[in-house]
Design goal:
mainly alpha, 327 residues, single chain, two-stranded antiparallel sheet, 2 strands
């Protein structure tokens, strides 16, 4: 069978299964974790765009997530704007901010770029924390509204109340669109240039490619996805303070890409669910939870440097070749 047809069948099956998940998962806490994991999928896909495709490690993803979250929250809480409008505007605003900071920072390479983005994340976090007259500081902003209800073909989607199923579908659709956008970029001419920069930036420069423009494009799209993730997070949780947007969360985004498989489309999905669910399942370890979590991450990084998805693909390929050989 044609590999493209197999891939489409797999995607369709996955979407059908994901759509039916709210009727299967009856425990509200598990549904809560799944929604958070899907928000992290959007964040990790953006991180993978600059880290996996281009080969530049950005430590500002959580900072951009915070910009999107606060932009959307302030417009809805302070000015009374529609949540649907701010969900659309927050990625654009975050992308605009990233152009201003990305233009000078992408002139440096390697570890210097990581240090510069680390500084940006710290500056963003400090502003959110100290500019309390607008952001609320440590006290945060409460009563962040959820999107207004709407109906489609007689189906009413109400995002308020105890059921999180409608919000799950919203975040699932957003995660699917974010992954589809990254897939479209990867399989386009722009994607091929981004991969060439990761493999040999000096050679790409030598043949006349304006590499900094492509790097800036990846950085801006990455930040825009982080802004979308932040906006969805804020309106889901209903309370916002700077804590989720520190440097440690940016490092978790990097870990999600590394664990799942850097440079792959499914890797960030696997990694996002891993960094969301793994710490929760380790709560049984009580005071040793963070130590155990760190140990697992170190072991996975050392023994699975390519990530879980490439290893799984390699095993499937070997199994298929063995079965074909037997025949």
């Amino acid at each position: 069978m044609n590999p493209k047809i197999v891939r489409l069948i797999g995607i369709a099956t996955l979407l059908v299964g994901a759509s039916a998940l709210p009727s299967v998962v009856k425990v509200p806490y598990f549904m809560h974790l799944i929604i958070l994991a899907l928000v992290w999928v959007i964040l990790a896909q953006g991180q993978n765009l600059i880290q996996g495709f281009v080969g530049y490690v950005s430590i500002a993803q959580a900072g951009f997530m915070g910009i999107g979250a606060y932009f959307s929250t302030l417009l809805t809480v302070k000015l009374g704007w529609s949540v649907w409008m701010t969900l659309c505007l927050s990625p654009m605003f975050t992308a605009l901010i990233s152009v201003l900071v990305g233009y000078p920072s992408l002139r440096v390479k390697g570890h210097y770029f990581a240090i510069v983005t680390l500084a940006y994340n710290m500056v963003i976090f400090t502003i959110l924390l100290t500019f309390s007259s607008v952001t609320g500081g440590e006290a945060g902003i409460s009563n962040v509204p959820r999107p207004a209800e709407f109906s489609v073909f007689g189906w009413l989607f109400n995002f308020e109340g105890r059921s999180n199923a409608p919000y799950y579908w919203l975040v699932l659709l957003s995660a699917f669109l974010a992954t589809g956008l990254c897939a479209a970029i990867l399989h386009s001419r722009v994607g091929r240039v981004l991969v060439s920069i990761r493999q040999n930036e000096a050679l790409a420069d030598a043949v006349g490619v304006s590499t900094w423009r492509y790097k800036l494009f990846a950085f801006v799209v990455s930040a825009g996805l982080a802004g979308l993730a932040g906006s969805l997070y804020a309106h889901y949780i209903g309370f916002l303070n700077p804590e989720p947007f520190g440097v440690d969360q940016s490092l978790n985004a990097i870990l999600a890409v590394i664990l799942g498989g850097s440079g792959t489309l499914t890797g960030p999905v696997v990694g996002a669910f891993a960094v969301t669910f793994l710490p929760e399942y380790l709560r049984i370890a009580d005071s040793y939870r963070l130590v155990t979590y760190g140990f697992i991450l170190v072991v996975a990084t050392i023994f699975l440097p390519r990530g879980l998805v490439p290893v799984a693909q390699s095993l499937l390929s070997r199994t298929k070749s063995l079965m074909t050989g037997k025949k």
